[in-house]
């Protein structure tokens, strides 16, 4: 089974992906981490976010087994990730790895922006997770605070709006709901309600 989860920044898709994978005994790939790892490599090397050649080279050198989510989740890394991820050559260089991951038994849950539309158009189940920008900013601000790097919630909201615009407005694999994806709006749901709703969607699609 392949489950594709897409949605905007801080919609809860990562948490849902992890929980669904555990529930169904599938592997899980947070594809945002891949773009974040490329962004971090550029930042570490002092390269600009639109350096196509450096981005593709960084992608070729990635070792997803050694990703450190804590370092990759920083706000500055997400910001650069949302810029580098608009480079078509970079996206093309990352397709095979993601498809191979999805196709490896026993199957997988992948979450990102273009899983249901580009990476796994034939996924068994597609879920498009959203929540209002304000609720997403609030959740993200709580995460930053819990990680010891608190950020002003208004600044987080501004960043989320900017990223939404960039992710939905780019020409290469923009964020959008696949025609056959189920919409899950978690604005008024706590995490356990959202997980229950996601499992219900999977069960109804099997
Ligand atoms: O989901 P996350 O916030 O970690 O993703 C960071 C950035 O990587 C996003 O803003 C988006 O621009 C990019 N991304 C993407 N395609 C994916 C996953 C993430 O373009 N499948």
UniProtKB/TrEMBL annotation:
Record EC number: 2.7.4.25
Keywords: ATP-binding, Cytoplasm, Kinase, Nucleotide-binding, Transferase
Residues that bind ATP: 7-15
Family matches, as SUPFAM superfamilies: P-loop containing nucleoside triphosphate hydrolases
Annotated Cytidylate kinase domain residues: 3-202
CDD domains, per database record: CMPK
Presence of the UniProt keyword Lipid biosynthesis in the record: no
Enzyme class: transferase
InterPro entries: Cytidylate_kin (IPR003136), Cytidylate_kinase_dom (IPR011994), P-loop_NTPase (IPR027417)
Gene3D superfamilies: P-loop containing nucleotide triphosphate hydrolases
GO cellular-component term (any): cytoplasm
GO BP terms in the entry: pyrimidine nucleotide metabolic process
Superkingdom of source: Bacteria
Record localization: Cytoplasm
NCBIfam families, per the entry: cmk (TIGR00017)
Entries under HAMAP family matching the protein: Cytidyl_kinase_type1
UniProt record similarity statement: Belongs to the cytidylate kinase family. Type 1 subfamily.
Protein's name in the database: Cytidylate kinase
Gene: cmk
């Amino acid at each position: 089974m392949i489950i594709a989860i897409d949605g905007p920044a801080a919609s809860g898709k990562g948490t849902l992906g992890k929980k669904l994978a555990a529930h169904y005994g599938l592997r899980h790939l947070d594809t945002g981490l891949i773009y974040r790892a490329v962004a971090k490599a550029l930042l570490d090397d002092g390269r600009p976010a639109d350096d196509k050649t450096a981005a593709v080279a960084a992608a070729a050198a990635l070792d997803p087994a050694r990703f450190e989510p804590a370092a990759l989740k920083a706000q500055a890394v997400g910001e650069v990730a949302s810029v580098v991820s608009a480079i078509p050559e970079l996206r093309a260089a990352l397709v095979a790895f993601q498809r191979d991951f999805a196709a490896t038994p026993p199957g997988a849950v992948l979450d990102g922006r273009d899983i249901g539309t580009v990476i796994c158009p034939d996924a068994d189940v597609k879920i498009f997770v959203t929540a209002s920008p304000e609720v997403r900013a609030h959740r993200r601000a709580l995460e930053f605070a819990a990680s010891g790097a608190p950020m002003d919630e208004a600044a987080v909201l501004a960043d989320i709006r900017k990223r939404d615009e960039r992710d939905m407005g780019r020409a290469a694999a923009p964020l959008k709901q696949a025609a056959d994806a189920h919409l899950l709006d978690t604005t008024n749901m706590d995490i356990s309600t959202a997980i229950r709703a996601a499992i219900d969607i999977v069960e109804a699609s099997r």
